[in-house]
Amino acid sequence: MQWSEVRKLFPDQYVFVEDLKSKIEGGKLYVEEVALIRPLLDSRETLEALKESKDNRFIYHTSNEKVVMDVVMKPMVRAVRS
Amino acid sequence: MKIEIVGGILMTSMTITHKGTTKTLDNMIIDTGSAHTWINLDAVEDDVDVAPEDGDQIVTAFGIGGRDIAIRKRIDRVDFGTFRASDFQVDFGRLDYGISGLIGLDLLMAGNFVLDLARLTLYQTEATTE
């Protein structure tokens, strides 16, 4: 599904989606096609979906015309385990 | 401000205030190798309203174990030692159990911090606010 279709169906809210097609360019991730997992109705559901977000699944707000994300390195702690 | 060595890394505490709630986070790692300050969602979600809102940025984090998603929010206030920052941008996401977050170079530089490893203290060269 195109992001524009998701925006039409669920305007001005967060949705939980899966990245089907994306590319990284200039340090940013551009998602071109998504599969809808579920619309998120309130802030509690949105927070739950954020915690479920992993690999290709993510939350995004449909007020955004395009899906563009900054790419960062996952924080890693290299402590000595006691 | 005193810092501690725990498990061979630098630990301190930091306080965040957001939407009228204040929470002090212990077990914050001082990490000059991290560009952004990052807070473990598990450490704050029960006390502070960090639910995603329109206007928050979603960021992708790549690394060992695959891809993660974090939310980049402007927090009303961050108090760190003598430094206070308003509307400070923090990433909220997944992190190892038992660690509240990482104090990144963004916060350390905004406060002009000096890290004294001989005395295990952290102080500002001059009082600044952002």
From TrEMBL, chain A:
Source organism's superkingdom?
Bacteria
Protein's UniProt name: Uncharacterized protein
Q: Report the source organism.
A: Alicyclobacillus hesperidum
From TrEMBL, chain B:
Pfam families cross-referenced by the UniProt entry = Asp_protease_2 (PF13650)
Q: Does the keyword RNA-binding apply?
A: no
Q: Which Gene3D superfamilies match?
A: Acid Proteases (2.40.70.10)
Q: InterPro entries attached here? A: Peptidase_aspartic_dom_sf
Q: Which UniProt keywords are given for this protein, alphabetically ordered?
A: Hydrolase, Protease
Q: Which GO terms of type biological process are on file?
A: proteolysis
Provide the GO MF annotations for this entry. peptidase activity
What is the name of this protein?
Aspartyl protease
* Species classification: Bacteria, Bacillati, Bacillota, Bacilli, Bacillales
